[in-house]
Amino acid sequence: MTLSAESLFGTRKQTLFLFILFLLEESYPEELARLIGTGRYNVVRMIDALEEPGILVSRTVGRQRMVSFNRRYGAAKELRALLGKLALADTEARSAAA
Question: What pLDDT, on a 0 to 100 scale, did the predictor assign at position 22?
Fold first, then answer.
């Protein structure tokens, strides 16, 4: 049995969101929505869902909400290692983040 990244992270859009944010290191909802090909509202919902348990953190720069992975999250090192391996193998995510 093989396990795909989508099985781990939900839908393809959610997976792309995580991969692209990992590759960019920091971004904002409008940019992520454009790169993923979805609406800003959907990205904000993804951010909110991952910010609540502490996986993501955001800060305000001017009027922009900047988002990144929380380095203080308990499994941050392991999550970053997994995302790094999977994101680098995903050509769609790599080309979107380039």
Answer: 95
Q: Give the model's confidence band at 2: pLDDT under 50 very low, under 70 low, under 90 confident, else very high.
A: very low
Per-residue pLDDT at 26 exceeds 80: yes
Question: Which amino acid, 61?
Answer: V
Closest C-alpha among 1, 28, 7 to residue 82: 7
Helices (H) and strands (E) in the chain, counts: 6, 3
Question: Angle, nearest 10°, between helix axes 29-36 and 40-51?
Answer: 120
CB-based contact 66:28 (threshold 8 Å): yes
Q: From CA 95, how far away is CA 98, in angstroms rounded?
A: 5
Nearest alpha-carbon partner for 83 in 72, 74, 67, 94: 94
- pTM reported for the whole predicted model: 0.88
